[in-house]
Design brief:
- The complex is a heterodimer of chains A (about 300) and B (about 260).
- Chain A is of the alpha/beta class and about 300 residues long.
- Helix content of chain A is about 35%, strand content about 30%.
- Chain A has a 6-stranded mixed β-sheet, with helices on both faces.
- The longest helix of chain A has 16 residues.
- Chain A starts with a strand and ends in a 6-residue tail after the last helix.
- By secondary structure, chain B is an all-alpha fold.
- Chain B is globular, with a radius of gyration of 19 Å.
- Classes of the chains: A alpha/beta (about 300), B mainly alpha (about 260).
- The interface between A and B is medium-sized, with 32 and 26 residues.
Protein backbone atom coordinates (compact mmCIF):
# COMPACT_ATOMS: atom_id res chain seq x y z
CA UNK A 1 0.00 0.00 0.00
CA UNK A 2 1.11 3.52 -0.72
CA UNK A 3 -0.54 5.00 2.35
CA UNK A 4 1.90 6.33 4.91
CA UNK A 5 -0.62 7.64 7.40
CA UNK A 6 -4.16 6.39 7.79
CA UNK A 7 -6.32 7.94 10.48
CA UNK A 8 -9.97 7.08 10.98
CA UNK A 9 -12.48 9.14 12.92
CA UNK A 10 -10.01 10.50 15.45
CA UNK A 11 -11.45 12.07 18.55
CA UNK A 12 -9.57 13.81 21.33
CA UNK A 13 -11.19 15.74 24.10
CA UNK A 14 -9.86 17.87 26.90
CA UNK A 15 -12.15 18.77 29.80
CA UNK A 16 -15.20 17.62 27.84
CA UNK A 17 -14.36 19.74 24.80
CA UNK A 18 -13.67 17.93 21.53
CA UNK A 19 -10.42 19.45 20.31
CA UNK A 20 -10.26 16.85 17.55
CA UNK A 21 -13.70 15.76 16.46
CA UNK A 22 -13.87 12.91 13.97
CA UNK A 23 -10.87 13.49 11.73
CA UNK A 24 -9.99 10.97 9.00
CA UNK A 25 -6.85 11.25 6.88
CA UNK A 26 -5.12 9.18 4.23
CA UNK A 27 -1.69 10.53 3.40
CA UNK A 28 0.30 8.81 0.66
CA UNK A 29 4.02 8.39 0.13
CA UNK A 30 5.84 11.33 -1.41
CA UNK A 31 3.17 13.95 -0.97
CA UNK A 32 3.23 17.14 1.02
CA UNK A 33 0.03 17.24 3.02
CA UNK A 34 -1.06 20.43 4.75
CA UNK A 35 -3.32 20.89 7.75
CA UNK A 36 -4.67 24.38 7.49
CA UNK A 37 -6.71 26.15 10.10
CA UNK A 38 -6.99 29.11 12.45
CA UNK A 39 -5.35 29.01 15.87
CA UNK A 40 -7.08 26.48 18.10
CA UNK A 41 -8.51 24.49 15.18
CA UNK A 42 -6.87 21.29 16.47
CA UNK A 43 -3.92 21.06 14.07
CA UNK A 44 -1.18 20.54 16.66
CA UNK A 45 -3.32 18.09 18.64
CA UNK A 46 -3.86 16.11 15.43
CA UNK A 47 -0.10 15.95 14.86
CA UNK A 48 0.48 14.83 18.44
CA UNK A 49 -2.10 12.09 17.97
CA UNK A 50 -0.49 10.91 14.73
CA UNK A 51 2.90 10.76 16.47
CA UNK A 52 1.49 8.74 19.35
CA UNK A 53 2.43 11.36 21.94
CA UNK A 54 -1.14 11.41 23.22
CA UNK A 55 -3.78 8.74 22.87
CA UNK A 56 -7.07 9.37 21.10
CA UNK A 57 -10.41 9.05 22.86
CA UNK A 58 -11.73 7.41 19.71
CA UNK A 59 -10.59 6.30 16.26
CA UNK A 60 -7.65 4.44 14.75
CA UNK A 61 -4.23 5.48 13.49
CA UNK A 62 -1.65 3.69 11.39
CA UNK A 63 1.69 5.35 10.78
CA UNK A 64 4.11 3.57 8.44
CA UNK A 65 2.13 0.37 9.03
CA UNK A 66 2.51 0.66 12.79
CA UNK A 67 -0.52 0.91 15.03
CA UNK A 68 -0.40 4.16 16.98
CA UNK A 69 0.01 4.76 19.90
CA UNK A 70 0.85 1.09 20.68
CA UNK A 71 3.84 0.88 18.31
CA UNK A 72 4.76 4.55 18.34
CA UNK A 73 8.36 3.83 19.31
CA UNK A 74 8.90 1.65 16.24
CA UNK A 75 7.16 4.15 13.96
CA UNK A 76 9.16 7.12 15.26
CA UNK A 77 12.37 5.40 14.24
CA UNK A 78 11.43 6.44 10.67
CA UNK A 79 9.94 9.84 11.52
CA UNK A 80 11.34 13.37 11.77
CA UNK A 81 9.64 16.18 13.65
CA UNK A 82 10.05 19.95 13.41
CA UNK A 83 8.15 21.30 16.41
CA UNK A 84 6.41 24.63 16.58
CA UNK A 85 8.46 25.89 19.52
CA UNK A 86 12.21 25.90 19.41
CA UNK A 87 13.62 23.12 21.59
CA UNK A 88 17.23 22.93 20.49
CA UNK A 89 19.81 22.30 23.20
CA UNK A 90 21.07 25.79 24.11
CA UNK A 91 24.24 24.48 25.76
CA UNK A 92 25.44 22.77 22.60
CA UNK A 93 26.89 23.85 19.29
CA UNK A 94 25.12 23.23 15.99
CA UNK A 95 27.09 20.04 15.33
CA UNK A 96 26.66 18.80 18.91
CA UNK A 97 22.90 19.23 18.64
CA UNK A 98 22.88 16.92 15.63
CA UNK A 99 25.22 14.40 17.28
CA UNK A 100 23.22 14.16 20.48
CA UNK A 101 19.92 13.90 18.63
CA UNK A 102 21.15 11.12 16.36
CA UNK A 103 22.04 9.05 19.41
CA UNK A 104 18.40 9.06 20.53
CA UNK A 105 17.68 7.04 17.38
CA UNK A 106 20.30 4.51 18.38
CA UNK A 107 22.75 5.69 15.72
CA UNK A 108 26.45 5.23 16.34
CA UNK A 109 28.64 8.32 16.63
CA UNK A 110 30.43 7.28 13.43
CA UNK A 111 27.16 7.02 11.52
CA UNK A 112 26.00 10.43 12.71
CA UNK A 113 29.38 12.00 11.99
CA UNK A 114 29.22 10.65 8.45
CA UNK A 115 25.89 12.41 7.94
CA UNK A 116 26.95 15.73 9.46
CA UNK A 117 28.43 17.44 6.36
CA UNK A 118 25.32 16.72 4.29
CA UNK A 119 22.96 17.86 7.05
CA UNK A 120 24.94 21.04 7.69
CA UNK A 121 25.00 21.85 4.00
CA UNK A 122 21.28 21.20 3.65
CA UNK A 123 20.67 23.65 6.48
CA UNK A 124 23.18 26.20 5.11
CA UNK A 125 24.99 25.95 8.43
CA UNK A 126 28.34 24.49 7.41
CA UNK A 127 30.11 27.67 8.48
CA UNK A 128 28.23 27.63 11.80
CA UNK A 129 28.98 24.03 12.81
CA UNK A 130 30.81 25.11 15.97
CA UNK A 131 28.55 28.05 16.86
CA UNK A 132 26.46 27.80 20.00
CA UNK A 133 22.71 27.79 19.54
CA UNK A 134 21.99 31.10 21.35
CA UNK A 135 24.18 32.92 18.80
CA UNK A 136 22.04 31.75 15.85
CA UNK A 137 19.34 33.82 14.15
CA UNK A 138 15.72 32.65 14.11
CA UNK A 139 16.08 31.36 10.56
CA UNK A 140 19.26 29.46 11.39
CA UNK A 141 17.61 27.84 14.41
CA UNK A 142 14.71 26.70 12.25
CA UNK A 143 17.08 25.26 9.67
CA UNK A 144 19.01 23.48 12.39
CA UNK A 145 15.74 22.07 13.74
CA UNK A 146 14.95 20.85 10.23
CA UNK A 147 18.40 19.28 9.87
CA UNK A 148 17.96 17.66 13.28
CA UNK A 149 14.66 16.15 12.11
CA UNK A 150 16.54 14.59 9.18
CA UNK A 151 19.37 13.05 11.18
CA UNK A 152 17.80 9.57 11.02
CA UNK A 153 16.96 9.92 7.30
CA UNK A 154 13.22 9.64 8.02
CA UNK A 155 10.49 8.61 5.56
CA UNK A 156 7.94 11.01 6.99
CA UNK A 157 8.58 14.49 8.36
CA UNK A 158 6.06 16.33 10.52
CA UNK A 159 6.37 20.10 10.58
CA UNK A 160 4.29 22.20 12.96
CA UNK A 161 4.15 25.74 11.58
CA UNK A 162 7.65 25.53 10.14
CA UNK A 163 8.01 29.18 9.12
CA UNK A 164 6.09 31.02 11.83
CA UNK A 165 8.10 34.02 13.01
CA UNK A 166 10.61 34.00 10.14
CA UNK A 167 11.43 36.84 7.78
CA UNK A 168 10.67 36.40 4.03
CA UNK A 169 14.21 35.39 3.09
CA UNK A 170 14.32 32.75 5.79
CA UNK A 171 10.87 31.44 4.79
CA UNK A 172 11.83 31.10 1.15
CA UNK A 173 14.92 29.12 2.05
CA UNK A 174 12.86 26.75 4.21
CA UNK A 175 10.30 26.34 1.42
CA UNK A 176 13.03 25.53 -1.06
CA UNK A 177 14.41 22.88 1.29
CA UNK A 178 10.99 21.35 1.87
CA UNK A 179 10.43 21.09 -1.89
CA UNK A 180 13.78 19.35 -2.19
CA UNK A 181 12.64 16.83 0.40
CA UNK A 182 9.42 15.98 -1.47
CA UNK A 183 11.46 15.74 -4.68
CA UNK A 184 13.51 13.07 -2.90
CA UNK A 185 10.34 11.11 -2.14
CA UNK A 186 9.91 12.13 1.51
CA UNK A 187 6.39 12.50 2.81
CA UNK A 188 5.72 15.81 4.56
CA UNK A 189 2.89 16.62 6.90
CA UNK A 190 2.75 20.25 7.86
CA UNK A 191 0.46 22.58 9.72
CA UNK A 192 0.30 26.21 8.80
CA UNK A 193 -1.92 29.24 8.81
CA UNK A 194 0.00 30.87 5.97
CA UNK A 195 -1.98 30.43 2.78
CA UNK A 196 0.92 31.21 0.47
CA UNK A 197 2.93 28.51 2.23
CA UNK A 198 0.14 25.97 1.80
CA UNK A 199 -0.43 26.96 -1.83
CA UNK A 200 3.23 26.69 -2.75
CA UNK A 201 4.17 23.55 -0.89
CA UNK A 202 1.21 21.28 -0.43
CA UNK A 203 -0.07 18.75 -2.92
CA UNK A 204 -3.14 18.26 -0.81
CA UNK A 205 -4.70 20.19 2.03
CA UNK A 206 -7.28 19.71 4.71
CA UNK A 207 -8.87 22.84 6.13
CA UNK A 208 -9.64 22.37 9.82
CA UNK A 209 -11.86 24.32 12.12
CA UNK A 210 -13.22 23.43 15.56
CA UNK A 211 -11.53 20.04 15.42
CA UNK A 212 -13.08 19.00 12.11
CA UNK A 213 -11.98 18.86 8.51
CA UNK A 214 -14.34 21.18 6.69
CA UNK A 215 -12.85 20.82 3.22
CA UNK A 216 -9.98 18.99 1.56
CA UNK A 217 -8.26 18.54 -1.78
CA UNK A 218 -5.48 20.13 -3.82
CA UNK A 219 -5.14 23.92 -3.51
CA UNK A 220 -6.75 24.30 -6.96
CA UNK A 221 -9.59 21.95 -6.12
CA UNK A 222 -10.28 23.80 -2.91
CA UNK A 223 -10.50 27.08 -4.76
CA UNK A 224 -12.61 25.65 -7.58
CA UNK A 225 -15.00 23.90 -5.22
CA UNK A 226 -15.46 26.58 -2.64
CA UNK A 227 -15.27 29.92 -4.27
CA UNK A 228 -15.87 32.01 -7.39
CA UNK A 229 -12.76 32.19 -9.61
CA UNK A 230 -12.24 35.96 -9.55
CA UNK A 231 -12.02 38.49 -6.75
CA UNK A 232 -12.28 42.25 -6.91
CA UNK A 233 -11.24 44.00 -3.71
CA UNK A 234 -12.73 47.46 -3.46
CA UNK A 235 -11.42 49.80 -0.78
CA UNK A 236 -11.57 53.35 0.46
CA UNK A 237 -13.97 55.24 2.70
CA UNK A 238 -16.81 55.06 0.17
CA UNK A 239 -16.43 51.36 -0.51
CA UNK A 240 -18.90 50.12 2.10
CA UNK A 241 -21.60 52.58 1.05
CA UNK A 242 -21.11 51.64 -2.61
CA UNK A 243 -21.35 47.96 -1.74
CA UNK A 244 -24.61 48.38 0.12
CA UNK A 245 -26.29 50.31 -2.71
CA UNK A 246 -24.72 48.89 -5.88
CA UNK A 247 -22.73 45.70 -5.37
CA UNK A 248 -25.63 43.27 -5.43
CA UNK A 249 -26.42 44.23 -9.04
CA UNK A 250 -23.01 43.18 -10.31
CA UNK A 251 -21.69 40.59 -7.87
CA UNK A 252 -22.66 37.00 -6.94
CA UNK A 253 -21.36 37.38 -3.42
CA UNK A 254 -19.59 40.09 -1.47
CA UNK A 255 -18.28 40.62 2.03
CA UNK A 256 -17.64 43.92 3.77
CA UNK A 257 -14.69 43.94 6.13
CA UNK A 258 -13.89 47.37 7.55
CA UNK A 259 -13.14 49.70 4.65
CA UNK A 260 -12.68 46.84 2.18
CA UNK A 261 -15.27 45.03 0.12
CA UNK A 262 -14.43 41.61 -1.25
CA UNK A 263 -16.45 40.86 -4.38
CA UNK A 264 -16.46 37.23 -5.55
CA UNK A 265 -17.47 36.84 -9.22
CA UNK A 266 -17.41 34.31 -12.02
CA UNK A 267 -16.74 37.02 -14.56
CA UNK A 268 -15.32 40.33 -13.42
CA UNK A 269 -15.86 42.38 -16.58
CA UNK A 270 -19.29 43.90 -15.79
CA UNK A 271 -18.14 44.78 -12.27
CA UNK A 272 -15.00 46.46 -13.56
CA UNK A 273 -17.09 48.58 -15.94
CA UNK A 274 -19.29 49.59 -12.98
CA UNK A 275 -16.27 50.50 -10.87
CA UNK A 276 -14.91 52.73 -13.60
CA UNK A 277 -18.05 54.87 -13.07
CA UNK A 278 -16.89 55.54 -9.48
CA UNK A 279 -13.55 57.35 -9.52
CA UNK A 280 -13.68 57.69 -5.70
CA UNK A 281 -13.21 53.90 -5.34
CA UNK A 282 -9.94 52.06 -5.62
CA UNK A 283 -9.87 48.38 -6.47
CA UNK A 284 -7.69 45.36 -7.20
CA UNK A 285 -8.74 42.58 -9.53
CA UNK A 286 -7.12 39.20 -8.95
CA UNK A 287 -7.77 35.46 -9.21
CA UNK A 288 -9.25 33.79 -6.13
CA UNK A 289 -6.68 32.23 -3.83
CA UNK A 290 -6.55 29.94 -0.89
CA UNK A 291 -6.90 32.77 1.58
CA UNK A 292 -10.31 33.58 0.11
CA UNK A 293 -11.31 29.96 0.57
CA UNK A 294 -9.96 29.93 4.09
CA UNK A 295 -11.80 33.08 5.12
CA UNK A 296 -15.00 31.86 3.52
CA UNK A 297 -14.80 28.53 5.33
CA UNK A 298 -13.59 29.72 8.72
CA UNK A 299 -15.05 33.23 8.83
CA UNK A 300 -13.43 36.61 9.27
CA UNK A 301 -13.83 37.03 12.99
CA UNK A 302 -10.74 36.93 15.18
CA UNK A 303 -9.81 33.68 16.98
CA UNK A 304 -8.43 34.35 20.38
CA UNK B 1 -5.75 1.60 21.86
CA UNK B 2 -5.37 3.85 24.87
CA UNK B 3 -2.14 4.76 26.60
CA UNK B 4 -2.27 3.51 30.17
CA UNK B 5 -0.65 6.08 32.46
CA UNK B 6 -0.36 3.51 35.25
CA UNK B 7 1.44 0.91 33.15
CA UNK B 8 4.56 -0.58 34.70
CA UNK B 9 7.75 1.23 33.54
CA UNK B 10 9.16 -0.25 30.35
CA UNK B 11 12.87 -0.66 30.74
CA UNK B 12 15.12 -0.05 27.75
CA UNK B 13 18.73 0.99 27.26
CA UNK B 14 17.49 4.05 25.35
CA UNK B 15 18.00 6.04 28.55
CA UNK B 16 21.78 5.91 28.03
CA UNK B 17 21.99 8.42 25.12
CA UNK B 18 19.91 10.82 27.21
CA UNK B 19 22.23 10.36 30.19
CA UNK B 20 25.13 11.09 27.83
CA UNK B 21 23.46 14.33 26.80
CA UNK B 22 23.26 15.48 30.42
CA UNK B 23 26.87 14.47 30.94
CA UNK B 24 27.95 16.46 27.84
CA UNK B 25 26.25 19.58 29.17
CA UNK B 26 27.78 19.07 32.60
CA UNK B 27 31.29 18.64 31.16
CA UNK B 28 31.10 22.14 29.77
CA UNK B 29 30.82 23.56 33.29
CA UNK B 30 32.46 20.83 35.33
CA UNK B 31 34.79 23.19 37.22
CA UNK B 32 32.23 25.32 39.04
CA UNK B 33 30.01 22.26 39.47
CA UNK B 34 32.64 20.17 41.28
CA UNK B 35 33.61 23.19 43.33
CA UNK B 36 29.98 23.69 44.40
CA UNK B 37 29.52 20.04 45.30
CA UNK B 38 32.65 19.93 47.36
CA UNK B 39 33.08 23.32 49.00
CA UNK B 40 29.77 23.62 50.80
CA UNK B 41 29.65 20.27 52.60
CA UNK B 42 33.36 20.32 53.40
CA UNK B 43 33.17 23.80 54.90
CA UNK B 44 30.29 22.70 57.10
CA UNK B 45 32.04 19.49 58.06
CA UNK B 46 35.28 21.17 59.01
CA UNK B 47 33.69 24.24 60.60
CA UNK B 48 31.22 22.35 62.76
CA UNK B 49 33.50 19.37 63.19
CA UNK B 50 36.44 21.27 64.64
CA UNK B 51 34.51 24.23 66.07
CA UNK B 52 31.66 22.43 67.74
CA UNK B 53 33.57 19.18 68.06
CA UNK B 54 36.11 20.79 70.38
CA UNK B 55 33.42 21.32 72.99
CA UNK B 56 31.83 17.88 72.66
CA UNK B 57 32.74 14.54 74.16
CA UNK B 58 33.23 11.54 71.91
CA UNK B 59 30.10 10.10 70.37
CA UNK B 60 29.91 6.33 70.37
CA UNK B 61 33.67 6.06 70.61
CA UNK B 62 34.49 8.48 67.80
CA UNK B 63 35.39 12.16 67.62
CA UNK B 64 32.61 14.55 66.65
CA UNK B 65 34.23 15.36 63.31
CA UNK B 66 34.46 11.66 62.47
CA UNK B 67 30.81 11.30 63.50
CA UNK B 68 29.89 14.27 61.34
CA UNK B 69 31.86 13.09 58.32
CA UNK B 70 29.44 10.18 57.71
CA UNK B 71 26.48 12.54 57.98
CA UNK B 72 28.15 14.95 55.58
CA UNK B 73 28.64 12.27 52.93
CA UNK B 74 24.95 11.39 53.13
CA UNK B 75 23.47 14.84 53.17
CA UNK B 76 25.72 16.12 50.39
CA UNK B 77 24.71 13.18 48.17
CA UNK B 78 21.08 13.84 49.08
CA UNK B 79 21.40 17.51 48.17
CA UNK B 80 23.17 16.87 44.86
CA UNK B 81 20.48 14.53 43.58
CA UNK B 82 17.66 16.69 44.92
CA UNK B 83 18.88 19.90 43.29
CA UNK B 84 19.51 18.14 40.00
CA UNK B 85 16.15 16.38 39.93
CA UNK B 86 14.21 19.48 40.91
CA UNK B 87 15.82 22.56 39.36
CA UNK B 88 17.72 21.10 36.42
CA UNK B 89 15.09 18.46 35.72
CA UNK B 90 12.38 21.10 35.65
CA UNK B 91 14.44 23.25 33.29
CA UNK B 92 14.84 20.33 30.90
CA UNK B 93 11.19 19.36 31.08
CA UNK B 94 9.59 22.78 31.07
CA UNK B 95 11.81 25.68 30.18
CA UNK B 96 14.16 24.27 27.57
CA UNK B 97 11.64 21.72 26.26
CA UNK B 98 14.45 19.21 26.03
CA UNK B 99 12.11 16.37 26.90
CA UNK B 100 9.71 17.39 24.16
CA UNK B 101 12.52 17.19 21.60
CA UNK B 102 13.59 13.77 22.90
CA UNK B 103 10.02 12.42 22.90
CA UNK B 104 9.84 12.91 19.13
CA UNK B 105 12.49 10.21 18.74
CA UNK B 106 12.06 6.48 19.51
CA UNK B 107 12.42 7.16 23.22
CA UNK B 108 9.62 7.24 25.76
CA UNK B 109 8.99 9.10 28.97
CA UNK B 110 10.03 5.93 30.79
CA UNK B 111 13.52 6.31 29.28
CA UNK B 112 13.66 10.04 30.01
CA UNK B 113 12.67 9.69 33.66
CA UNK B 114 15.15 6.86 34.12
CA UNK B 115 17.88 9.01 32.55
CA UNK B 116 17.03 11.85 34.93
CA UNK B 117 17.24 9.52 37.93
CA UNK B 118 20.55 8.04 36.87
CA UNK B 119 21.96 11.42 35.96
CA UNK B 120 21.01 12.98 39.31
CA UNK B 121 22.43 9.89 41.02
CA UNK B 122 25.64 10.31 39.03
CA UNK B 123 26.00 13.76 40.53
CA UNK B 124 25.45 12.26 43.98
CA UNK B 125 28.16 9.75 43.24
CA UNK B 126 30.47 12.60 42.38
CA UNK B 127 29.59 14.42 45.61
CA UNK B 128 30.03 11.31 47.71
CA UNK B 129 33.42 10.52 46.19
CA UNK B 130 34.56 14.14 46.56
CA UNK B 131 33.67 14.25 50.26
CA UNK B 132 35.18 10.79 50.77
CA UNK B 133 38.46 11.99 49.29
CA UNK B 134 38.56 14.91 51.70
CA UNK B 135 37.86 12.51 54.57
CA UNK B 136 40.74 10.29 53.44
CA UNK B 137 43.05 13.23 52.81
CA UNK B 138 42.47 14.59 56.32
CA UNK B 139 43.06 11.14 57.77
CA UNK B 140 39.58 10.98 59.28
CA UNK B 141 39.02 7.44 58.05
CA UNK B 142 41.49 4.67 57.36
CA UNK B 143 38.84 2.05 56.87
CA UNK B 144 38.98 -0.19 53.77
CA UNK B 145 35.23 -0.56 54.27
CA UNK B 146 34.94 3.14 53.48
CA UNK B 147 35.20 2.21 49.80
CA UNK B 148 31.59 1.03 50.14
CA UNK B 149 30.69 4.72 50.45
CA UNK B 150 31.02 4.89 46.65
CA UNK B 151 28.15 2.53 45.75
CA UNK B 152 26.20 3.85 48.72
CA UNK B 153 26.40 7.38 47.28
CA UNK B 154 24.90 6.10 44.05
CA UNK B 155 22.05 4.38 45.91
CA UNK B 156 21.32 7.46 48.02
CA UNK B 157 21.38 9.46 44.79
CA UNK B 158 18.88 7.14 43.08
CA UNK B 159 16.61 7.38 46.10
CA UNK B 160 16.56 11.18 46.35
CA UNK B 161 16.48 11.68 42.59
CA UNK B 162 13.38 9.51 42.32
CA UNK B 163 11.71 11.27 45.26
CA UNK B 164 12.66 14.69 43.90
CA UNK B 165 11.20 13.94 40.48
CA UNK B 166 7.79 13.47 42.09
CA UNK B 167 8.02 17.10 43.18
CA UNK B 168 9.24 18.17 39.74
CA UNK B 169 6.28 16.40 38.13
CA UNK B 170 3.87 18.35 40.35
CA UNK B 171 5.62 21.73 40.19
CA UNK B 172 3.95 24.65 38.45
CA UNK B 173 7.21 26.62 38.70
CA UNK B 174 10.54 26.89 40.49
CA UNK B 175 9.02 28.57 43.57
CA UNK B 176 7.22 25.32 44.34
CA UNK B 177 10.54 23.64 45.19
CA UNK B 178 10.86 25.77 48.32
CA UNK B 179 8.09 23.66 49.90
CA UNK B 180 10.06 20.48 49.34
CA UNK B 181 13.35 21.84 50.58
CA UNK B 182 11.82 23.55 53.61
CA UNK B 183 9.33 20.88 54.58
CA UNK B 184 11.15 17.70 53.56
CA UNK B 185 14.87 18.11 52.98
CA UNK B 186 15.73 20.43 55.89
CA UNK B 187 13.79 18.42 58.51
CA UNK B 188 15.33 15.26 57.09
CA UNK B 189 18.79 16.72 57.60
CA UNK B 190 18.00 17.37 61.26
CA UNK B 191 16.07 14.19 62.04
CA UNK B 192 18.26 11.57 60.44
CA UNK B 193 21.42 11.56 62.47
CA UNK B 194 23.55 13.80 60.30
CA UNK B 195 24.61 16.28 63.02
CA UNK B 196 23.70 14.35 66.18
CA UNK B 197 22.60 10.81 67.05
CA UNK B 198 18.95 10.00 66.45
CA UNK B 199 18.60 8.72 70.04
CA UNK B 200 18.84 12.34 71.23
CA UNK B 201 15.38 12.89 69.76
CA UNK B 202 12.05 12.36 71.59
CA UNK B 203 10.60 8.89 70.98
CA UNK B 204 7.94 10.12 68.57
CA UNK B 205 10.51 11.83 66.36
CA UNK B 206 12.68 8.73 66.46
CA UNK B 207 9.78 6.81 64.94
CA UNK B 208 9.50 9.41 62.20
CA UNK B 209 13.24 9.28 61.70
CA UNK B 210 13.16 5.53 61.18
CA UNK B 211 10.83 6.01 58.22
CA UNK B 212 13.02 8.55 56.48
CA UNK B 213 15.50 7.33 53.86
CA UNK B 214 18.37 9.55 54.99
CA UNK B 215 18.42 7.78 58.37
CA UNK B 216 19.13 4.50 56.61
CA UNK B 217 21.84 6.08 54.50
CA UNK B 218 23.54 7.38 57.67
CA UNK B 219 23.06 3.97 59.36
CA UNK B 220 25.15 2.47 56.58
CA UNK B 221 27.72 5.23 56.09
CA UNK B 222 28.75 5.78 59.71
CA UNK B 223 30.01 2.28 60.53
CA UNK B 224 31.58 1.92 57.07
CA UNK B 225 33.74 5.01 57.66
CA UNK B 226 34.61 3.66 61.12
CA UNK B 227 35.66 0.27 59.73
CA UNK B 228 32.66 -1.60 61.08
CA UNK B 229 30.03 -3.66 59.27
CA UNK B 230 26.60 -1.97 59.52
CA UNK B 231 24.09 -3.80 61.68
CA UNK B 232 20.99 -3.90 59.48
CA UNK B 233 22.51 -3.85 56.04
CA UNK B 234 19.64 -5.51 54.21
CA UNK B 235 16.93 -3.47 55.91
CA UNK B 236 18.73 -0.19 55.26
CA UNK B 237 19.35 -1.04 51.61
CA UNK B 238 15.75 -2.21 51.23
CA UNK B 239 14.41 1.13 52.48
CA UNK B 240 16.64 3.12 50.12
CA UNK B 241 15.83 0.84 47.18
CA UNK B 242 12.13 0.93 48.06
CA UNK B 243 12.04 4.72 48.01
CA UNK B 244 13.95 4.65 44.69
CA UNK B 245 11.56 2.26 42.96
CA UNK B 246 8.42 3.83 44.37
CA UNK B 247 9.72 7.28 43.43
CA UNK B 248 10.45 6.14 39.89
CA UNK B 249 7.00 4.68 39.42
CA UNK B 250 5.06 7.52 41.05
CA UNK B 251 7.01 10.26 39.28
CA UNK B 252 6.66 8.45 35.94
CA UNK B 253 2.88 8.19 36.32
CA UNK B 254 2.71 11.88 37.25
CA UNK B 255 4.89 12.89 34.30
CA UNK B 256 2.80 10.77 31.92
CA UNK B 257 -0.32 12.56 33.09
CA UNK B 258 1.31 15.97 33.00
CA UNK B 259 2.72 15.59 29.49
CA UNK B 260 -0.50 14.13 28.11
CA UNK B 261 -2.10 17.55 28.51
Amino acid sequence: MNSVIVAEKLVKQYAGQRVVDGISLNIVRGECFGLLGPNGAGKTTTLRLLLGLISPDGGKIELLNHVIPGQAREARQRIGVVPQMDNLDPDFTVAENLMVYGRYFGMTDAAIRARLPELLEFANLTHKADAKVPTLSGGMKRRLTLARALVNDPDVIFLDEPTTGLDPQARHLIWQRLRELTARGKTLVLTTHFMDEAERLCHRLAVMDNGRIISSGSPRELIAENIEPEVVEVFGEHAAAWAQSHAAHHVQRFEISGESVFCYVNEAHPLLLELQQHPELRYVHRPANLEDVFLKLTGREMRE
Amino acid sequence: MKINHYAFPQFSLRFIPIWRRHYMVWKKMAGPSIMGHLADPVIYMLGLGYGLGGMLPQIGGMSYIAFLSAGTVCYSTMNSASFEALYSGFARMHEQRTWEAILNTPTTLDDIVLSEIFWAASKSLLSGVAVLMVIWALGMSHSPLSLWIIPLSLLVGLCFAAMGLIVTALAPGYEFFMYYFTLVITPMTLLCGVFFPVDQLPAMLQTVSAMLPLTHAVNLARPLLNNAVPVNILADIAVLAGYSLAGYYVSLVLFRKRLAQ
